[in-house]
Amino acid sequence: MNILYSLFYTVFSLAIVSAAALPVILFIRFIVINIPKKFIMYLWMLYLVRSICPVSLSSIFAIVPSFNRKVHIFMETMGLSFVSNGGSLKGWQSVFVEPFTVNINFRFCSIIWAAGAVFICIYTFVKQARIRNWLNSGAKRLESDIYQREKLNIPVMTGIFNQKKYIPQEMKAAEAKYIIKHMDIHAGRHDGVLRAAAFVIMSIQWFNPFMWLAYYFICRDIETAADEDTISYFGLEKRAEYAQEIINMNKGKKIINPSLVTFQENYLEDRASKMLYQQKVKKKDRQIVILVCLLIFIWWFMVRPLQILWNGGLWDGNANESQTNTTSEPLFSNDNQKVVTKASVKSSDGLEKIVKIVMTDGTENDNGYDGRFSIMLEDNSGNKLAEESLDNLYSVREENKLHFNKDFEVHISDYNNDSINEISVGQDIEVSDENVKAALGKKAKTKKEKNIKSLQEYYLWNIEGNDLRRASEPIYLTGKSDNSANSCEFKIPENTTGVIKSKIAGNKMFYVWDTDKKLFVKKELSKAELKSYKKTDTSDNAEKTTHSLNNDSDREIIRVTTQKDSTGSEEIKKVEITPDGVSKSFKNIKGYYCDIKWVQDTQDEQRYAILTYNGTKSQTFIVFDTKLKDVYYKQEDGNSTLSKVFERYNGDSITFGKKDIVVYTLLEKDKDILKIGFAANAKNNVTVKGSYKYDIENENPYEFSYSQSTGTSGGDESGDNADTNTETN
Prior knowledge:
By secondary structure, the chain is an alpha+beta fold. Helices cover 31% and strands 29% of the residues. The strands form 7 sheets. Strands 25, 26, 27, 28, 29, 30, 31, 32 and 33 form a 9-stranded mixed beta sheet that branches. Helix 2 runs parallel beside helix 7, helix 2 packs parallel to helix 11 and helix 9 runs antiparallel to helix 10. The two termini are 25 Å apart.
């Protein structure tokens, strides 16, 4: 039975594709009305091929990227799920090569589809056999394939390859010459094959009303095209005569009711009317049709290959990656800034922000990035809040040409204990007499001072709300290499605050926080002076806070105990359910408190409580069942599960780094179904927002949708598997 399910999956997917493609043909057919129908037939041929050809069905380079994934996800909601690939397929071929499971709904739909297709084929075959037997029973052969049949009042043609033509016994010779030529044109153009192919496709997609509509117009256009060629054969001056003969056939009741694959003279009045206005085919009509067919062919069949060629022949589409690692990348424009690194940081307003080092102009090579750089601050949605240039700060060898290693990480810490984080950004600088003097505060005299091998220069940056501010004079270190030369964590004298210690060639140097200048400035400190910067250890006496939820009877149901750390943030210490009775405690929650509130549930309004907190990798939440005194659902602290959801529903077009930040929210709860919202950073400077539903009982995510923005401006890229907005069910 698996082959039946695989076929139904593929056929249903193709039916959606054909439904989307039909408006294109109908638009051309009705709007570009001057094009002869014989040219429109080429478009119908392309349409029929597209309706049975699964090529590009899962191409991520489709005009509407999310469309393809919706097809697969919709089928999954009907009950087909893959054992591998997270439950959903990445391409239509998976249904024939990957193991999958189906539920009773999918089985029922597959069987009904197969039964309907078989019924239509058998019914048509039987009806066609009866028509052929009736025609042959009293037919008189006039020529090799032309017969005359009494009681027949309209011409009929049967067969696909070996066709037979039947004309009424009462038909005059003048009428017959037009009709026989009309039938000869059908046979010469193999219209029987085209009509049979359309019938087979329609039988396979019998549940698709768009295919029935397409079949209707195909049959009409086949007849009109044959009329056009008949007129061209006899000459335009015979239009009225031929049209009159067509009208004369529209007399009396039809003797036979033809099958779906039998040619008979239909749509007579409409065809006769069109003949009277038929014009000579112009050269430009042919040119228009060739152009339209070419464009549609490229759209329906060649989007994926052309995208591959455009991207330099890389099948994974990563054309922006260097194929020869020995050469440098070209200059980056200001509209295409290269993100060198990024990190999540908590600003003074308590909100999570994203700090990026971006190359605004320069080159990329094996050793890293060389050029001009900026430090940038964004919110979680990718909107740029602030940007400061790093040019002209450092004493580098070549003016305005900085270097950053690949995969370096920025170090973030609160060095002055003001609850505002500082970020260190540095550079290797030239070991010149001038730079050594600036680092030491004096001219190099000793052997150690004169033999300094490497020298690094750093600056600290403050994140104050939505602003970036330089928070230090140059801080010099020595002996740092590779990634630590671009950012490092400074040493702080034990039990001090607002002091950074550096040691160069045996010389101890201190950088202390100047509250007036709001900068770390270089300062010589004696041991006695250093004691003034000692901090008092208040960890044991740190302020503790409780946050509670009460029920309607004002009884405390859940309590969260927090303790402020040195930055003033409330670290979660314990969660207790029914603390004034037989309670249950949870002490393994690592993070900082944000909020505790009741979950709005359709069944139990004061049963489920949600704790929102800042974890080590994301802003996330836990839902507690206060009745069972247990964790009902715990959202991950990180993006590994989110990565799997994207891979399942969106392929590999969006990927996440381990340190990319994400914010989760619980949007709604309906019984055991949670709707989870997310806003996250992804690789390639992409920010995504969206949601998905999660079935607690079956542990299954579905109804996944998202929008994405790219670049430093935060602007959306639109499409439908896309916007780029992808919405799947």
